[in-house]
Amino acid sequence: MLFSLILCSNILPAYVKAEQVTVQPKIMVVPFVKDGEDIRTVLEEDADKRIVLTNVKEAFDSRGFTTIDFLGKLKAGSVQSGMSEEQQSDLKSMIIAASGADIYVDTEMIINRSASGNSVKVIITAYDISTGGSLSNKVGDSRKFYTDDFGRLASKAIESCVDDFLNVMQIKFNDMIQNGKSLNMTIGFDEGSSYNMNSEIGDEMLTIADLIEMWLEENAYQGNFHIQGTTATKMIVDDVRIPLKDSKGNNFSVAAFGREFAKFARKHGLKITRNVVNNSLIITIS
After folding, report:
1. Which of 176, 206, 241 finishes a domain?
2. Which band of pLDDT confidence, cut at 50, 70 and 90, is reported for residue 232?
3. Closest Cα to residue 34, out of 88, 81, 77?
4. Alpha carbons 159 and 170: distance in angstroms, whole number
5. Residue 14 above 50 pLDDT?
6. CA dist 154 → 101, 126, 144 (Å)
7. For residues 230 and 12, what is the distance between their CA atoms, to the nearest angstrom?
8. Which of 122, 150, 176 is the last residue of a domain?
9. 27-36, 72-81, 182-191, 266-275: the lowest-pLDDT one
């Protein structure tokens, strides 16, 4: 069974160092659904998924994190009925996108049955929502017991790893606040393009490669970026930092960074297409 935890920032005592105040995530547990499945039907028909949903939520609650009630959001009508099958299958992504969260945590529950006792393993992995970057991952094991109470076993598995998981996640989250979130960029050209990285454009007749580097110096968070390499047809930026939040306090996403690049390109008379794949921004100049 797979589940996801959605997290957004809140000013609370830090988990890593309780005596300090820092930005700490809020958490929402979201169940995994297969393509074409209705997430509401899945929850109604599978008691184990509802139990694990509650167990993970309680584990975070007990450690001072404020949690968001996914079931409450669903029942309140934040997701409307009458959706198409395609929309139903992508409901997890829709909820994440509308949550205003910073982090989601995928949780996989594996049930093992045997004559010597039953056990549950829980695999949890935290990801930054806006870039897809991994922040923390742990595996918890309940050990074997002669019981069919898999909710109780799942709780034991979660308790065995949740402290280490949260500590690592909080450290990585704090680093993003201080140093920005990491993404990578690839800038290339259409086959029929009349431009390349060495083309000189604008009043100052600077090369496109120089203009892109100058733009990164101004727009990367704290000017922090690294160009892996540049050829006549491609520039690879293997690490560029973007802020955690925009000026309105919303998540600053890879797509938002791409929009800023589009404004820069338009200013210099360049037509581009852009695609976002997880934490990668792919730019193609026509």
Report:
1. 176
2. very high
3. 88
4. 17
5. no
6. 25, 18, 11
7. 44
8. 176
9. 72-81
CA torsion, points 70, 76, 77, 81, in degrees to nearest 10?
Answer: 80
CATH code of 46's domain? 3.40.50
Residues 165 and 189 in one domain: no
The answer to whether 14 touches 22, Cβ cutoff 8 Å, is yes
Closest Cα partner for 259 from 272, 241, 244?
A: 272
Q: DSSP per residue over 137-162, as a string? A: EEEEE---BS---HHHHHHHHHHTTH
The residue with greater pLDDT, 129 or 80, is 129
Continuous segment of H or E residues that includes residue 264: helix 254-267
**Residue 98, domain extent:** 2-176
Contact 48, 198 (CB under 8 A): no
Query: Is the same domain home to 138 and 204?
Result: no
Q: Quote the pTM value.
A: 0.75
Residue pair 236/188 in contact (Cβ under 8 Å)? The answer is no
- What is the tens place of the pLDDT at every residue in 183-207? 999 999 999 999 999 999 988 899 9
Summarize pLDDT for 117-142 with one digit per residue, the tens: 999 998 888 888 778 888 999 999 99
Under a CB-based contact definition with an 8 Å cutoff, are residues 167 and 17 in contact?
Answer: no
